[in-house]
Design brief:
The complex is a heterodimer of chains A (445) and B (743).
Chain A lengths: L12 H7 L3 E10 L5 E10 L6 E9 H5 L1 E7 L5 E2 L1 E7 L3 E12 L4 E10 L3 E3 L3 E2 L6 E7 L7 E10 L4 E4 L10 E4 L5 E3 L3 E4 L6 E7 L5 E13 L4 E12 L3 E2 L5 H6 L4 H4 L5 E4 L5 E7 L2 E2 L3 E3 L3 E4 L10 E11 L4 E4 L2 E7 L3 E2 L3 E10 L5 E7 L4 E6 L11 E11 L6 E7 L2 H4 L1 H18 L1
Parallel strand pairs in A: 1-12, 10-20, 18-30
Antiparallel strand pairs in A: 1-2, 2-8, 3-7, 4-5, 4-8, 6-7, 9-11, 11-17, 12-15, 12-16, 13-14, 13-17, 18-19, 19-26, 21-25, 21-29, 22-23, 22-26, 24-25, 27-28, 28-34, 30-33, 31-34, 32-33
Chain B lengths: L6 H4 L9 H24 L2 H5 L8 H15 L1 H5 L2 E2 L8 E2 L7 H15 L6 H6 L1 H20 L2 H13 L1 H4 L9 H22 L2 H17 L3 H17 L5 H18 L8 H4 L4 H20 L4 H29 L7 H7 L3 H5 L1 H4 L9 H8 L2 H15 L2 H19 L4 H23 L5 H17 L4 H7 L10 H7 L5 H30 L6 E4 L5 E4 L1 H12 L5 E3 L5 H8 L2 E2 L8 H12 L2 H10 L4 E5 L10 H15 L10 E2 L2 E2 L7 H5 L1 H7 L4 E3 L4 E3 L10 E6 L5 E6 L9 H8 L2
Parallel strand pairs in B: 5-6, 5-7
Antiparallel strand pairs in B: 1-2, 3-4, 7-13, 8-9, 10-11, 12-13
The chains are: A mainly beta (445), B mainly alpha (743).
Chain lengths: 445, 743
């Protein structure tokens, strides 16, 4: 399984000409707008009308979507996850992804690919600033048709809307007030099917609608995961930097209005609380910020409910730190001196997009031959943290950084392998005992 | 007790020194003292248990901020720190206007812990600083009291000072203030002073000077020592107790201590210029004369001597008094400060400097607070003083002088109960140990030894039950015949009466500990940043509005935003919101504070140009109307009016704000009150009962608010933040512009 960010820079130019002969016989695009980020699923029936068999399929991603891409997964009809590599950049507008078929697609054969895409910053509020009584209106822009470098025989677009009433501004100046769109009772909008679409056709789609949820973005999340081999504990510490990136509140905040009409206007989309996922075994939870403990939190079974000090109206910031400890044995396996630590890349709140995520894993002193892997292609760095607790030397540390993450799939993991001898394990208590014993031996003299 | 014995030796019964028994006693004593220290420390941790590890109140927030600055920038930069984030636009020469002792000490502790590899946050060091030092205070009080009487009284004093609510109130975890360290240093300085006077040691006198220097670096209250020690010497001289020991001790202390104290930038040349320091200088001079006179006395005849003494005394006193007045007049010696005057005339501040009177801790002490802060010690204290008068060695004179002065001052200002507490502890300990001497002496030496052993075993596990502990050391000395020693000989025969007396006093002490525990937990452990409240169903919950609002400021305003608030909240805004303030708790500039009061007191049209002049971006006010919080800005409004009225009497007249002679808010209040910016901002958009003042507020109370707009109001309405509107871009006045916007 290789994801978007870990894409190897291979040159796919040589095979482009050959692949150009594939055809999209049927495409169904499904865009989910109920999240504050983009979730889109594209089902593509690919046929090879050509003589030679095709090895791969070129998928085209608009540049802005590529830059904020959080996750991308391709599954074929047998439900196998397909690998893909980064192709060339086309006219600075598109990014090509080369998806390798499991088996070459022979002449006349058809294969169904399903592409799952998550991208952050998919909607922006318009107007940017509004009064407290106004609704949060956002704009979503995309292409009305499937952009491909192949000929598309038939395609269809479905949009799952958060509310029933939307306005379509796709026509631009020709209909400046927009065309009202009404979703069906499942909140689904089905656009008319299009037939025989030429390669690289792009028709703009501009939707404006009231988004009734708060658009919460974590600008930065620093996770520190440190272990205590003597106490058999793994400590998690997560520092969030939150922004409500929805419609900004005009200067005047009326508390009385906020209390009396919690469901009206921008009050509705203020972030009041967050549910943070916790692992099944957790203890010693805390919730603090820069000025001390925040008393408003509750721990449920696998959730921590935190209330920010103040409701986050549009444009407001808040930062906080939560932490807990877990049994180390849940995360650490070993054979002899070889250890492997497996921790989830992200727990955190649901349906939040994270701009940068830094996982810092502090390993025990004396760990050697450290290597780190992950499912999302993070940038790995090694460093040493400052000595602490009577230490004479420091803990080796692994930093793994990710950009643009959505909290959708919590199965993604980080793996850190290292070697750690029994001697290093008991070095600290042994040294302490020796020092104390020595001091008192000479004192007695 | 002979003066020549060192502390270590006096700690052991002389006849048992070196024996197994003596060793055991030392161990027990060590255990007792460390238990007392541990109890004193742990009692002060209620605030952490009930709330959290947080800096308390107002001034500690500045100290904390300064400590962080010191830890980040180093000592040199700290001394030259010009803080442009307070007293906007004036700024504050912080390095030169603070006592750095506290910050430097906690930084050293922090560095030491880091050096040991303990990654402790500087905040934790600051929060736990006061409790840790209270443990040390207990030890120094033990040493001091032991010099006065004996070990038993020392340990009792350690217990009393460690547990007295009067001291706990200033040293719970989180109250990171100068007092936290200074009481320790006060006791240390006095201990070394007594030591120096007793044996005339230059060594002890210089340690005393060193400790005095430390005290000067830590607290403005060092003036208390500066006057206490000369006063002691002066009284001794009046009593005709001049001795070479006294001369050595005082001259060493004065010269070294004065030179050392002048190294603190904030103190500078005050020790030779300030009126508060003149008594020390005068006594220094007097001591030279007395020394010279006693030299003369040995050379000339008594008749000649008498004549010389009388004429020269009159001449010198007249000359020095004239000199002092002349120097003061010429401006070389600085006149007394307002705070000093208010020590003698409690009405002085109210009339002349309302800002001093507006501080609640500068109010005269209500008599109930003596009982609250000293509990049962209030009764033991005079007994101890009486016993000290009976004994009346040089050090007891000190005790008496200290007791008299501290009693007076503590009645004048609430905060000075703090300086009274140690002496109350010492005197009470002397009283109780004297009582135990009488009622708990078994007479013969052999019996004493027998009763010790089982009790010693018990006291291993007990920490507080002093009654048992005190039995360990009935330090009777057969050789000496001083008053204290004679007490041990007047044993009471009847076992019953002895048991009754000892057990009842044991009970009092236990009650004292329980009372202190209760007072500490209920009254002194609140951080005042976080308030605890209980809902109708009895559940307690925290009201965290201050931090909510400060954090909002910190996260959602421009980093350079200037916040206007009443000076009480200046340090907290600086510490928690990290924003620039106009005035803060370092009330050095009365005019600037008056300006803030003026802005709050005048109407919108007059306030707006002032707000623009001062670049104010946000106004923060405290409003307790919704949750019945009495310490809000409307209740402090009179002080704002008085302070600004003192500077701009034409613009702000106190009488204008009264309604028929009463302080009244709401729709029925006077025009000046109703139109004042503070009144408008407090009640803007508020409807319902203003609970602290019991006035019904409706939408008509504040029909419009045009120059500022609500930026944030905390969950319980306690903190309201207003944004000052920028001048209208179309040049309309803000009333019209707002009216237009609201259409």
């Amino acid at each position: 399984m290789v994801s978007a960010a870990s894409i190897l820079f291979t040159l796919a130019t040589g095979i482009t000409a050959v692949l150009a002969s594939l055809e999209n016989t049927n495409v169904v695009r499904h865009i989910d707008l109920t999240r504050p980020y983009l979730k889109s699923t594209v089902e593509i029936d690919v046929t090879n009308p050509d003589r030679s068999s095709a090895q791969s399929y070129n998928y085209i991603l608009p540049k802005d979507e590529y830059e904020t891409l959080a996750d991308l997964k391709v599954v074929d009809s047998k439900n196998n996850t397909l690998d893909f590599t980064l192709g060339s950049e086309i006219e600075q507008n598109y990014q090509q992804l080369v998806i390798a078929f499991d088996e070459p697609l022979k002449k006349g054969e058809t294969e169904t690919l399903t592409v799952y895409i998550f991208a952050t910053k998919s909607v922006f509020p318009l107007p940017e600033v509004a009064k407290q009584a106004d609704l949060q209106e956002v704009v979503f822009e995309s292409s009305k048709n499937y952009i491909s470098e192949y000929h598309t025989t038939k395609e269809q677009l479905q949009i799952l809307a958060p509310i029933r009433q939307l306005t379509d501004f796709s026509e631009g100046v020709s209909s400046p007030d927009g065309v009202p769109l009404k979703a069906d009772h499942n909140n689904m909008i089905r656009f008319d099917a299009q037939e025989d679409v030429a390669p690289f056709t792009e028709k703009s789609l501009v939707l404006r609608y009231n988004f009734p949820l708060s658009i919460t973005t974590v600008a930065n999340l620093d996770r520190t995961i440190s272990m205590d081999t003597l106490r058999n504990k793994l400590y998690f510490d997560e520092s969030y930097d939150l922004i409500n990136t929805g419609t900004k509140l005009d200067n005047d905040f009326s508390r009385i209005d906020y209390v009396r009409n919690p469901g009206a206007g921008l009050n509705m989309v203020a972030l009041r609380r967050l549910f943070l996922h916790l692992p099944a075994d957790h203890a010693d939870e805390y919730y603090v910020d820069l000025v001390g403990n925040v008393s408003t939190s509750q721990v449920h079974k696998t959730m921590m409910e935190v209330f920010p000090r103040y409701p986050l109206m549009g444009g407001w910031h808040y930062n906080f730190t939560v932490g807990w400890s877990s049994e180390l044995s849940q995360y650490l396996r070993h054979t002899d001196n070889n250890f492997i630590l497996r921790v989830p890349i992200i727990l955190g709140p649901d349906r939040v997009s994270i701009t940068t995520l830094n996982n810092k894993i502090v390993l025990p002193k004396g760990a050697k031959n450290i290597e780190a892997y992950d499912d999302m292609g993070g940038v790995v760095e090694f460093e040493n943290t400052n000595p602490s607790l009577f230490d004479l030397y420091s803990n080796p540390t692994v930093n793994i950084r990710f950009n643009h993450i959505v909290t959708e799939d919590r199965s993604r993991q980080i793996y850190v392998t290292y070697q750690y001898s029994v001697l290093s394990r008991f070095k600290l208590p042994f040294t302490l005992v020796t020092i104390v014993a020595t001091i008192f031996y000479f004192l007695k003299r | 007790m002979s003066a020549e014995t060192t502390p270590l030796q006096t700690a052991v019964l002389p006849e048992k020194r070196g024996t197994k028994h003596g060793k055991l006693l030392r161990v027990i004593k060590f255990i007792i003292l460390s238990s007392i220290a541990a109890a004193a420390v742990s009692m002060r941790l209620y605030s952490v248990l009930r709330f959290e590890s947080i800096i308390h109140e107002y001034d500690p927030w500045f100290n904390f901020r300064a400590t962080k600055y010191l830890s980040e920038h180093g000592y040199q930069k700290f001394l030259n720190w010009f803080d442009n984030r307070s007293w906007y636009p004036l700024g504050r020469v912080t390095g030169g206007t603070l006592f750095p002792g506290l910050m430097v000490t906690s930084n050293i502790v922090h560095k030491l812990l880091l050096f040991l590899g303990l990654p402790v946050d500087i905040r934790e060091v600051c929060v736990l600083f006061a409790p840790a030092f209270s443990g040390l205070t207990a030890y120094f009080t033990y040493l001091l009291t032991r010099e006065m009487k004996d070990d038993v009284s020392g340990m009792l004093a350690a217990l009393f000072v460690g547990m007295a609510p009067g001291y706990i109130s200033r040293s719970v975890a989180g109250s990171y203030d100068n007092e936290a360290i200074s009481i320790t240093l006060l006791m240390a300085t006095f201990y070394f002073w007594i030591k120096a006077v007793k044996i005339g040691s230059v060594l002890y006198a210089s340690i005393c000077a060193l400790s005095y220097f430390y005290m000067v670096s830590a607290w403005g209250g060092y003036v208390f020592i500066t006057n206490m020690i000369p006063l002691h010497v002066f009284v001794l001289l009046l009593m005709g107790r001049y001795h070479a020991r006294l001369y050595t001790a005082y001259c060493t202390w004065y010269s070294l201590g004065t030179l050392a104290s002048m190294q603190i930038p904030f103190v500078g040349t005050l020790p030779v210029k300030g009126s508060e320091h003149m008594s020390a200088l005068g006594v220094f001079g007097l001591l030279q004369i007395v020394a010279f006179a006693s030299f003369l006395k040995s050379k000339v005849t008594p008749k000649q001597f008498k004549l010389t003494v009388i004429t020269s005394t009159v001449a010198i006193i007249a000359l020095s008094a004239f000199g002092l007045v002349a120097l003061t007049y010429a401006g070389i010696v600085l006149p007394w400060t307002g705070r000093f005057y208010s020590l003698w005339d409690t009405n002085y501040a109210k009339i002349h400097i309302p800002i001093i009177a507006s501080v609640s801790e500068h109010q005269p002490t209500p008599w109930t607070s003596f009982f609250m802060d000293l509990s049962v010690l209030t009764w033991f204290f005079p007994v101890g003083v009486y016993l000290a008068i009976q004994e009346l060695r040089d050090e007891h004179v000190f005790l008496i002088v200290y007791a008299v002065f501290a009693s007076y001052f503590s009645g004048v200002m609430v905060r000075l109960v703090l300086t009274l507490t140690p002496i109350v502890a010492v005197c009470s300990a002397i009283a109780i140990s004297a009582l135990l001497d009488v009622y708990n002496t078994s007479g013969s030496e052999k019996e004493t030894v027998d009763t010790n052993t089982p009790i010693a075993e018990k006291s291993d596990k007990t920490t507080k039950s002093k009654a048992k502990v005190t039995k360990v050391n009935d330090d009777a000395k057969p050789d000496q015949v001083s008053f204290f020693d004679s007490l041990g000989r007047k044993t009471v025969g009847s076992t019953l009466s002895r048991i009754l007396a000892v057990s009842s006093f044991a009970l009092y002490i236990i009650m004292f500990v329980k009372q202190s525990d209760y007072v500490t937990e209920s009254a002194y452990s609140s951080p005042s940043v976080v308030l605890s409240s209980s809902s109708p169903d009895g559940q307690t919950f925290l009201i965290d509005d201050f931090r909510e609002a400060y954090y909002w400021l910190r996260m959602n305003t421009d980093e350079d935003a200037k916040i206007l608030s009443w000076w009480d909240y200046g340090y907290q805004i600086g510490g928690m919101a990290d924003r620039t303030t106009l005035v803060d708790n370092n009330t050095w500039n009365n005019t600037h504070i008056g300006m803030v009061g003026r802005i709050m007191s005048v109407d919108e049209d007059r306030a707006y140009p002032l707000l623009l002049q001062h670049d104010v971006d946000y106004i923060l006010i405290i409003f307790g109307g919704a949750i019945n919080f009495n310490g809000d800005d409307l209740n402090k409004f009179l002080w704002m009016i008085r302070i600004s009225g003192g500077i701009w009497p034409e613009e702000v007249k106190e009488s204008d704000y009264y309604t028929n002679g009463y302080y009244q808010v709401g729709s029925d209040s006077s025009d000046a009150m109703r139109n004042s910016l503070l009144h408008k901002m407090s009640f803007w958009r508020f409807q319902g009962m203003d609970r602290p003042r019991r006035v019904k507020i409706d939408a008509n109370t504040v029909p419009s608010l045009d120059i500022v707009e609500e930026a944030y109001t905390s969950a319980n309405w306690m903190v309201r933040i207003y944004r000052v509107k920028k001048p209208d871009e179309f040049g309309r006045d803000l009333h019209k512009a707002t009216a237009f916007d609201n259409k």
